[in-house]
Amino acid sequence: MNRARVFLTGVGGQGTLTATTLLARTALDAGLPVTSGEIHGMAQRGGVVESTILIGGYRSPVIAPGEADVLLGFELLETLRALPMLRRGGVVVGNSEQVQPVGVCLGRECYPPLDQVLETAKGFAGRVVLVPCISLAERAGTAKAANTVLIGAAAAAGALPFDVAALARSVEKYLKPQLVALNVKALELGAEAARAAQTGQAA
């Protein structure tokens, strides 16, 4: 696989756009043409952030509903909301832990249970891999690395046209030196969790 339309969704403060940039640079370093764009971004923490990355020669950064090959969900409720963007049989890789969006915090919306999100996702996707990104990021050194955990999980799940080692090279090349070790660890923890999750599904 050297083509993929990836839709990323999360909330402000999660590093969704940072992850998008890292994925794009990794693809470019692998010699793959990339188009990416920010669909909707809220500067304040907690606002919805969505972005796209299309790898393999797509001319437009737009992903229409039902077109995404991969949905990367940095926040559980936003993953649920974005499921219509996924093509039938696509792959969902998401954070299984809550980062409550503004609507939930204000009492306008109710947060769905994990089992409900998982079952709904299975109705859209060929594969669903959910990992506890925040907890794993804290193990790596900081909860802020949850975005790196998720993309490590996505690479290990085979959802991206490059592997975890390629992402690690990008972390070493593009992030500040003081952030490299913990982000490489976050990638590894995400990858391990994704492999374990898929083994469990296959059992």
Automatic annotation (TrEMBL):
Gene3D superfamilies: Pyruvate-ferredoxin oxidoreductase, PFOR, domain III. InterPro entries: IorB_Oxidoreductase, Pyrv/ketoisovalerate_OxRed_cat, Pyrv_flavodox_OxRed_cen. The keyword Oxidoreductase applies. Residues 12-192 form the Pyruvate/ketoisovalerate oxidoreductase catalytic domain. Keywords: Oxidoreductase. SUPFAM superfamilies: Pyruvate-ferredoxin oxidoreductase, PFOR, domain III. Pfam families: POR. GO terms for molecular function: indolepyruvate ferredoxin oxidoreductase activity. Its EC number is 1.2.7.8. This is Indolepyruvate ferredoxin oxidoreductase. The lineage of its organism: Bacteria, Pseudomonadati, Thermodesulfobacteriota, Desulfovibrionia, Desulfovibrionales.
